[in-house]
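User: Structure please.
Assistant: Input sequence and predicted structure:
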Amino acid sequence: MQEKPKLNLEKSMTMFEEAKRISPGGVMGIRRPYNFVEGEYPIYLTHGYNGHIVDVDGNDYIDMLCAYGPIILGYNEPEINQAVIDQMAKGFCFSLVQPIQNELIKRVIDIVPSAEMALLVKTGSDATSVAVRLARSYSGKDKILRHGYHGWHDWCVEVPGGVPTAIQELTLEFP
């Protein structure tokens, strides 16, 4: 059996070594290098296009993770890019709401048959935390059953360093 050549990840690994000196753990996110064998996968990307991502060493991959879910239409799509540019010309990241939020929520409600209301959040961690808070409010129960990765808030973090014991006791993990 012929062995396949190793990926060239020289730049990525150099950047990772630097990152470990300046940031705890080197990088953030679910795909942290300590979850894998170092030197066997890319860490740093330069860009994406369609359903592909390209790392700092020039390796091109099909992104099967779709950026953990939100990139269902692909990277660098002209129509989406233009809509973002148009919105940025009006400003972005306001502390108050713009009318476009109501328009988007109404579209979601129209598209999702069971949706009577909708809430927009910025991250997957925010989404799972909202879901837990709503479930606790509705059920009156405090404990959470958890399996797998759901973000990095106290109730769902994989490595509970710095998380109060009382919170850890409310989260029960199952295989």
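The beta strands are 45-49, 52-55, 60-62, 144-146, 171-173.
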